[in-house]
Amino acid sequence: MSTAVAAGASGARQVWRRLRGRPSAVLAGGVLVLLVALALAAPLLAAIEGQDASTYHDDLVDSARGGVPIGSFGGVSGDHWLGVEPGTGRDLFVRLLYGARVSLLVAVGATAVQVLIGVSIGLAAGFGNRLLDTFLSRLTDVMLALPMLVIAIALTAVVPADFPRPLLLILVIGLLNWGGTARIVRAQTLTLKQLDFVAAARLGGSGRMRVARRELGPSLAAPVITYGAILLPSNIVIEASLSFLGVGVRPPTPSWGQMLSTAQTWFRADPMYVLLPAGLLFVTVLAFTVLGDAVRTALDPREAGRLRVGTRAGRRDRAGGAATSLKETAPLKETAPFKETAPFKETAPFKETASFKETAS
Fold it and tell me: Are the C-beta atoms of residues 56 and 68 closer than 8 Å to each other?
């Protein structure tokens, strides 16, 4: 057990070292850490600014122009660091912070639900009998073929209004979008169960649940983590899309997608109200995507080598490796010159024997 723990710790250190060696991964991770810290500290920052997310300030908008914020850059001032919301005068900085909390909460929660359901169904399909595998595989195909966004809109529209919308979005996105995770886990399970360590565990008397938990689980961690990192930005976009369409998070709870939906009528009069939530959404999705790609290559170094094939860095690495290998090999020693053998001596000519004497008749 201690050997396995030590091996896992060593593997984690190698992955962490590979991630630190990629500047793009470090930058993306720093952006996400900063964003999460700002979202968690939203109440504290709101108190420092002296504002909240729901108070209206009618004196900060020009009613004669339809509610456009008074001042430059959307009403930026010492009291409102990023300006105010058009039409209502609510503080934009605080609403962006609380919107980040909603977006990250929904994305992380939906990803956890997807991974939990997908891993369970993928393991059951890959490690079960043929009948169970066929049934779960067809169920996964059906879930992948469903128009997820259309069904999510229908489900969120019929749920009672008093149901918590963030929790509803987590359940809807997670329950409708686990097919990709299940398919990946099933494929990996079918490959792993043919290996010797799984057969040895079965011969040792371990049951299916124990083999799946102790033997297959650690081997499935890398692909599941990789796919989970890719799911996070897509779930952020789905939440923003549902809120943009009016079936996601509802007012007065702030959300980036909801703010973008409201900003459709203000993009000419107040461009900052459009650029700020759109820019934060773009940066967040890009950071998650870059970090997910870095995690994928860190967990599978061979993938990084395949991605470098044909690039200038790849050719330079191959040239350096070839030069190093040539230096390390010992010089070829010349063999002794070939000595000619003695000339072939001809044998004595064949002498015919005496003619055959005919026997007496």
Answer: no
In this structure, what DSSP letter does residue 91 have?
B
- pTM for this prediction: 0.77
CB-based contact 32:291 (threshold 8 Å): yes
pLDDT of amino acid 310: 46
What distances in angstroms separate CA 146 from CA 122, 143, 178, 186, 279, one per listed residue? 18, 5, 12, 20, 31
pLDDT at 93: 95
Longest dimension (CA), the chain: 152
Residue ranges of the chain whose pLDDT lies below 50: 1-6, 306-307, 309-311, 324, 326, 354-361
d(CA 69, CA 265) in angstroms, rounded, equals 14
Q: Which phi-psi region, left, alpha or beta, contains residue 310 (left: φ > 0; alpha: ψ -120 to 50)?
A: left
Please give the C-alpha separations between residue 222 and each of 81, 111, 137, 226, in angstroms, as whole numbers.
42, 16, 22, 6
At 269, list the tokens. Answer: 């009069």
- For residue 53, which amino acid is it? A
Indicate the Cα dihedral angle 254, 255, 261, 263, nearest 10°: 60
Q: DSSP assignment, residue 69?
A: E
Distances (CA, A) of 135 to 16, 115, 143, 153: 39, 20, 13, 28
Q: Per residue, what are the HEC states of 204-247?
A: CCCCHHHHHHHHHHHHHHHHHHHHHHHHHHHHHHHHHHHHHCCC
Cis peptide before 252 (omega within 30 of 0): yes
SS3 for 320-356, per residue? HHHHHHHHHCCCCCCCCCCCCCCCCCCCCCCCCCCCC
Rounded to 10°, the helix 179-192/217-244 angle is 170
Q: What's residue 327's pLDDT?
A: 52
DSSP state of 72: G
Selection from 281, 292, 275, 273 nearest residue 238 by Cα: 281
Contact between 31 and 287 under an 8 Å Cβ cutoff? The reply is: yes
Identify the pLDDT of residue 360: 43
Nearest to 104 by CA among 181, 40, 149, 175: 40
Helix (H, G, I), strand (E, B) or coil at 84: strand
